[in-house]
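Title: Prediction job returns without error message
Component: structure pipeline
Severity: low
Priority: P3
Assignee: unassigned

Description:
Job completed but the reporter wants confirmation the result is attached to the right record. Sequence as submitted:
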Amino acid sequence: MASARADQAVNERGHKLRCDSPVVAVGVASWPDTVAEVEDNPQKMAEYEHWRALTIAWLASKWGEKLQCIVEHLDEPHPHLHWVVIPDLQQNGLLQIQSVHPGYEANAASKARGETKREQKKAYKAAMKALQDDYYVNVAAHCGLTRLGPRRQRSNREEWLEQQRQAKYLASTRANLMADLEKAKAQAKQIIDDRVAKTEAAAEARVNDVVMQMHQRIEALKQKALHRISEERATVAKLESELAARDERLQAALALLEEYGIEHRPKF
């Protein structure tokens, strides 16, 4: 993939890339125990797998989609990981290694500032040291590894063993603290969830209470209206009965008048 992109790429002048142009960043991370020790000891295997998972996560966070592959090697004395990062081929044909390599990025920035070759080299080394420091903070320190070896520090064996013991103790302490932190987070989440559930239950009960009160009021109004209608019907029936009685008395009076020969003519 790197070779195919390099064949299509051009430099800032539009010319094909030189054959010695850097077009891919390849790295390696190694575990201190031997393959045999890891495979024969479940505890060491667990420690190695923890380191491997953290390393892969760190690589993914650093390079994202530009990280093309990670290869685990168990066919040499110490287990290790190789990884490959390839810069994107831009629309203008440029293939810039500084987009995936912090050393080249710092060197290019130094050059753009007009600094000397010596200053550019110093910027390159500082960026690569910062990359290793970042790896130590986010991966190695969690696995009981030291930042520098005994030769770089000019330590004797006793001092080196003590540093390793301290590093492992710090890693264990850090792991315990992280476990406590996750436990505290889980407890806090449970408390929040319980409070939210109680609040939601109280709100739902309040809503149900309001709805019930509304239904009760509607039912009361309905009963009141039915009672009023019943009263009105009774009044109408009473008036109809009174009118019927009056009509009967009137008919009886008219019949009595006719009986005595008195003609009744209504006045208009």
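Comment from assignee: result matches the submitted record. The helical segments are 2-8, 35-40, 42-63, 102-112, 117-138, 150-153, 157-259.
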